Amino acid sequence: MFAERGLNVAAADLDPQANLTSMFLDEDRFEEVWPKGKHPLTVQGVIDPILRGMGDIQQPHVENIDGRIGLITGDLGLSGFEDKLSAS
Questions:
Q1: How far apart are CA 65 and CA 26, in angstroms?
Q2: Which residues pair with 72 in a beta bridge?
Q3: What is the CA radius of gyration of the chain?
């Protein structure tokens, strides 16, 4: 709705199930963003240095959905982070 009104919108998928990401990306792009191993193009890649205790957050990759909508893609790996956060 905001994009249709001419505003730029950034959506950050922080849900461990990554439902927002699955709504925006087709299956091929989904697989490219989530390769086997590390996921530097997702929100998991943004916080990975903190999880490893080796630095600060990374600059997020913003997936261009259209001219006005950008997406910081979610990651199923956030469920593990969510468990660690709850335990802390």
A1: 11
A2: 12
A3: 14
Residue range 52-77, pLDDT digits in tens? 888 888 899 999 999 899 999 999 88
Q: Are the C-beta atoms of 42 and 74 separated by less than 8 Å? A: yes
Q: Is 90 exceeded by the pLDDT of residue 3?
A: yes
Residue at 19: amino acid letter: N
CA 29 to chain CA mean position, Å: 13
Beta strands (DSSP E) in 1-88 are 9-12, 63-64, 69-72
Residues 43 and 61: their CA atoms lie apart, in Å, by 8
Cα Dmax for the chain = 42
pTM of the entire predicted model = 0.82
d(CA 69, CA 71): 7
